[in-house]
Amino acid sequence: MSRSCIRVREVGPGDGRGCACARSDAGRYLEEIDPAVGQVPAQAGLAEHFESECASPRPPEELCLVAERNAQVVGSVLAVVIPPAQDASVVSSY
Q1: Do 28 and 20 contact (CB within 8 A), yes or no?
Q2: Which residues, given as ranges, of the chain have pLDDT below 50?
Q3: Overall pTM > 0.90
């Protein structure tokens, strides 16, 4: 049995197709678990949409990473820093 390592790195140009596949796979998985929640996105234009997003510069409060296995994107994550509320007595939970 061979081992394949997962490498995590910042997203970049050329990652759109892999991100689209990972999003579709996640949608199918979630749809199997709970059809009311899971949704497979329309395939037409999905890779192009992700490619445009992957190639675009990100604002400093965003971080987008991809996971690769055997040089193929198999997952992605987007993290966003949300500034604190003006009123420190109000706490938001997401």
Answers
A1: no
A2: none
A3: no
